[in-house]
Amino acid sequence: MPDMARKTTTARKATVTALAWTVGFLIFFPVLWTFLTSFKTEGEAIAAPPSFLFFDWTVENYLTVNERSDYPRHFWNSVVIAVGSTLLGVLIAIPAAWSLAFVPGRRTRDVLMWMLSTKMMPAVGVLVPMYLIFRDTGLLDTKSGLVGVLTLVNLPIIVWMLYTYFKEIPAEILEAARMDGAGLRSEIIYVLAPMAVPGIASTILLNIILAWNEAFWTLNLAAAKAAPLTAFIASYSSPEGLFYAKLSAASTMAIAPILILGWFSQKQLVRGLTFGAVK
Amino acid sequence: MGRITLRNVSKRFGEVAVIPSINLEIGDGEFVVFVGPSGCGKSTLLRLIAGLEDVSGGVIEIDGVNATGLPPAKRGLAMVFQSYALYPHMSVRRNIAFPLKMAGMDPAEIARKVEAAAAVLNLTGYLDRRPGQLSGGQRQRVAIGRAIVREPKAFLFDEPLSNLDAALRVNMRLEISELHQALKTTMIYVTHDQVEAMTMADKIVVVNQGRIEQVGSPLDLYRAPANLFVAGFIGSPKMNLIGGPEAARHGAVTMGLRPEHIDLSTSAGTWRGTVGISEHLGSDTFLRVQVEGPGMITVRTGGDSGLRHGDAVFLTPQTGRMHRFDADGKAMA
Amino acid sequence: MATQHSRTAARLMISPAVILLFLWMIVPLAMTLYFSFLRYNLLMPGMEEWAGFSNYRYFLTDPAFFTALRNTLVLVLGVLMITVTGGILLALLLDQPMWGQGIVRILVIAPFFVMPTVSALVWTNMFMNPVNGLFAHAAKAMGLQPYDFLAQSPLLSITLIVAWQWLPFATLILLTALQSLDSEQMEAAAMDGAGPLSRFVYITVPHLTRSITVVILIQTIFLLSVFAEILVTTNGGPGTASTTLTYLVYVQSMLQFDVGGGAAGGIVAVILANVVAIFLMRMIGRNLDA
User: Domain residue spans in chain C?
Assistant: First the structure.
């Protein structure tokens, strides 16, 4: 009897495995296909029937994309904008989250909700003035301008994430530090920050991903010089002639770093993006 | 050094007066225990002394200096928290050294003091471990170590033993008492456990609903509880409190009799009753006796009592051991 | 539960964030409001004049507005339906014992990290293109006429692309929620004689409700501002067939340089988003432990 039970479980497990792998493969397929196409020649990329693995692998597309379109500069722009806006945001958000988590008052909840509500304001509602402000202050198509805007766009999420992480640190430990003679600065530097390192790290990781993929402000406020990868890739939308393989190569390079970061942060992703409501 | 004076200290959270007004004098070197039921304000009182909360009114003096507005760091007190509040990311060594580092002490001096404290607390072998790798009792010792290295004016303990199991609790109780004997520093200890209060304190402060019900030595409180609350709170098992005509016969609204102050007989006595549940502790037996008139009475008897459920017994209160309370619950002379 | 010192410090430490966000919210919005009452075209600088409500009249009576409103609703609701249903099914599947669950998780989560412009371009060109797309190849191989997704059903195509991006998010959250379900609860229910179906209906579903709400709330925030996917695929077309409110305002202000009209549209979008937001914040408030 127990033997039979084990057998049915194994059969069931095999079915589930087959089904799950198929579904997973299908969902992942566009990413895989992009990756494979990036190693084909333009001719093979549109050949019918398409070849899956058995084609002449070439890295020519990567070389062409790198030479012709100044890809490294856009990549660098993406790095500066995503990392810069995240670090700036975290710097502003850590003290704010400390206040909200450890000195809660009657208005704490309202402040948190208000911050979140700024996320709900449609960006398009302030597109015109932002465009004009940027144009008149010379921030249009600059990295610092985009860093500033993305800091503000993601600040509510950063505050919220840090807040949920900080709230898990027992207030008694900070009080112990106070009793031990630590001032506010020492309390944050020696006790809170080291204890919150995992939380701060996943906040940073997640917001780099969000900022890297942000595609409203980057598309509207940067045309050429400061354009990050989102805008660079968008320039492929009206191409001439054969371009699938090059599009794939550029896309692969644009998404690969963030895909890898993302795979590392998938646990924290849930918690972070649901503001601690799902853990 | 370590004299703490509270004058008209009060604390409100919004509309709620957690502590209406308290006056208290704690002498240098005293071991004072704040005891009371949970939510009575005893922990708040400790946090007010620590400076972790602001007073709403009144003055706190430490060694004659007004400390009411001082931040915790400037009061020269050390605290051991209920959860120990050790810094999980620091080794035991760095935990104990932290207050000294904050005080800007010379590293060699810090190392010397930490070693000394570790030796006293049997932590020498554990200095390089993290708090997460220690047992509950060891964590407790680290918390104490962190407190003693600073040589504070007074130690504050906030229910420090409530996270330990029963056997360990007894051990730590002794260790803290011994520490007090050795250091002779003022200690203020908060607990809801009256056994801890009775066994450790020089002076017990019974707190109820933000008010001090009585202050005195353990035996004072045991022998002469000032009111019904203290009478019911101090002593285990609880004092029998009897109302109605039985109390009226002695000129009181309520009369109190401790289980150990009632004589038990199988032949004759003041009250006749029937044995209900009995609790055998080995050294003692506590009988719950249903008595006509006074009701259920708890009686202590010897460990070898052969009485069983349903047996008929006679009870006689010992003269002069009776406590009498008036309509306000105050003890009558 | 704190002292005056710490409260003062707290106020000081939170003020940079609050002030910045306040300015970010109020300054551009006030400007938008002001522009919305002007006749203001970037091609004719210096010709600004007071226009009263004419921008609003123009925007609200434009048939494109109603199309955009409808399209926005279809897109948001469509993506929500696909991702929530798909997410529940996938989460239930992935929660079963299997080999290589970690790898399947990695495969499933991948689309979420793909930047919107990349996923839109890859889908339109390499899959949905009627000549060289993979779907066209497949149709031809089966002897069918290739379907021109973006020309014949542009909104549906965009909905599918966006749904592909957000399906991982819903799946991952619901899977996490499922895994946090106390197995003792399930065992207790089994002991009480509940079959697999009643266990699902009476225990799993109630347990998931909160997470489903959270998925809906957070996705809505992001879906209302879907932009890049439209820009690089259809440009809102053909005609206005795939123009959402966000995209309509963009066209008006950035392509037609009609600042006044775009601003009026922006204010309308803000008002509508606020209606949704108030409704959502109520739900969020109940589901987040602030």
Answer: 53-289
Q: Is pLDDT at C283 greater than 80 in this prediction?
A: no
Residues of C in contact with B53 (CB under 8 A): 1-3
Contact (CB, 8 A) for A76 and A254: no
Opening angle at CA C28, ends C23 and C34, nearest 5: 130
Residue ranges making up the domain that contains B257? 237-325
Tally of residues, chain A: 279
Inter-chain residue contact B103 with A182, CB threshold 8 Å: no
Give chains near A: 3+ CB pairs under 8 A: B, C
Please name the residue of chain A whose CA is at the shortest distance from the CA of residue B103. Answer: A181
pLDDT in tens, B17-27: 899 999 999 99
C-alpha to C-alpha distance for A177 and B72, rounded to whole angstroms: 10
Mean pLDDT, rounded, for A131-139: 89
Where do the domains of chain A lie?
2-37, 69-273
Tens of pLDDT, residue by residue over B140-173, are 999 999 999 988 999 999 999 888 888 888 988 9
Task: Name the packing angle between helices C154-179 and C63-94 (round to 10°).
Answer: 40
Domain A69-273 falls under CATH 1.10.3720.10: yes
Please provide residue A77's backbone torsions phi and psi, each rounded to the nearest 5 degrees: -55, -45
Contacts with C, B 27-86, CB within 8 Å? 51-54, 71
Residue B69 main-chain phi, psi, to 5 deg: -95, 0
CB contact under 8 A, C21 and A118: yes
CB atoms within 10 A of CB A57: 12
Alpha-carbon distances, residue A154 vs A96, A164, A203, A261 (angstroms): 14, 16, 11, 18
Closest-CA residue of chain C to A237: C232
Which chain C residues in 102-141 lie under 8 Å from chain B, judged by CB atoms? Answer: none
Residue A5 is predicted with a pLDDT of: 46
Sign of CA dihedral A217, A223, A224, A229: positive
Give the chain A residue whose CA is nearest to the CA of C96. Answer: A16
Helix axes C259-287, A127-136, angle to 10 degrees: 120
Substitution target in C55, C95, C118, C250 with the highest count of A β-carbons within 10 Å is C118
pLDDT at A8: 61
Q: Any CB–CB contact under 8 A between C50 and chain B?
A: no
**Is B85 within a domain?**
yes
Distance between C205 CA and the closest CA of chain A, angstroms: 15
- Interface touch C1/B54, C-beta < 8 Å: no
B278 in contact with chain A, both atoms CB, cutoff 8 A: no
**ipTM of the assembly?**
0.87
Q: Contact, A80 vs A147, CB < 8 A?
A: yes
B150:A178 CB<8 A: no
B201-256, pLDDT tens digit by residue?
A: 999 999 999 999 999 999 999 999 999 999 999 988 899 999 888 888 888 899 99
In a domain, B188, yes or no: yes
CA of C5 vs chain B CAs: smallest distance (Å) = 7
Which residues in chain B touch residue C2, judged by CB atoms under 8 angstroms apart?
53
C202 vs C87, residue with greater confidence: C87
B-proximal residues of C, 187-206, CB under 8 Å: none
Q: pLDDT band at residue B110, thresholds of 50, 70 and 90? A: very high
Are B120 and B223 within one domain? yes
Q: Phi and psi for B331 in degrees, rounded to 5? A: -70, 140
